Amino acid sequence: MALQLSITEENYLKAIYHLQQTNDKVSTNDLAASLHTKAASVTDMLKKLSQKKLVDYEPYMGFTLSEAGLGTALAIIRKHRLWEYFLVEHLQFGWDEVHAVAEELEHITSTLLVDRLDAFLGYPKFDPHGDPIPDINGKMVLLKQINLTDAPIQHTVTVSSVGSQSTALLEMLKTKNIGIGTPLKVLERFAFDHSMDVEINGNKHLNISQQLAQSLFVTI
Predict the structure, then answer these.
(1) In whole angstroms, what is the distance from residue 165 CA to residue 117 CA?
(2) CA distances from 175 to 126, 134, 158, 181 (A)
(3) Which of 142, 169, 191 marks a domain boundary?
(4) Which of 56, 54, 107 is nearest to 78 (CA)?
């Protein structure tokens, strides 16, 4: 019988997964900051998740997802990214409009629905923001990509993902006609403010800030 989890518990597991991508162990304070809640509330929830054997938790030592917790987190992420793909490709949502909607849809519990959604979409490997979509077994295709700030001068690269799904960033990229799959060529970098001139789609020239460049990942 599948373990029944609340929406809050699922959100905790997903947040821990994302934090673990940059830290071997996650601290209570980091998780509290990520979820915009109090450390005491995080401690209480970790005890519950530990009792359900979804996290390996030792007070004051940090914590990680257990094997079962990792599988659950990946299943939630799979649903989220499949729904984002569906909303963009079939309901004509903009890539800056889908995150909040997918946050609600990711808590649907029917595995049959999700599996059929995956099949209907043709088993996509990446969501509209370039993030990999886990398959039914939690496996993902990982691209060899670099930050745009590290891209070689006068070499055409392709935008493969964005470092944030903030509406402000995605709206800015849309106004600059930069999206997943857009070819870019770094023409020049400026030491004064670390901005760069880029060529978009082989013709349009644009100056972009260091902050914006740091939010873009590309394949060579």
Answers:
(1) 23
(2) 23, 30, 18, 16
(3) 142
(4) 107
- 29: domain CATH number is 1.10.10.10
Q: What is the pLDDT of residues 75-125, one digit of tens each?
A: 999 999 999 999 999 999 999 999 999 999 999 999 999 999 999 999 999
Give me 69's structure tokens.
């917790």
- pLDDT single digits (tens) 143-201: 899 999 999 999 999 999 998 888 899 999 999 999 999 999 999 999 999 999 999 98
Q: Which CATH number do you get for residue 176?
A: 2.30.30.90
Is residue 160 within 8 Å of residue 182, measured between CB atoms? no
95 Cβ contact partners less than 8 Å away, ≥ 6 residues apart: 84, 88, 128, 129, 170, 174, 179, 180
* CA nearest to 11, candidates 82, 77, 87: 77
| pTM (2 d.p.) | 0.88
Among the listed residues 44, 82, 50, the one whose alpha carbon sits nearest the alpha carbon of residue 63: 50
Domains: count for the chain: 3
Q: How far apart are the first and last CA of the chain?
A: 46
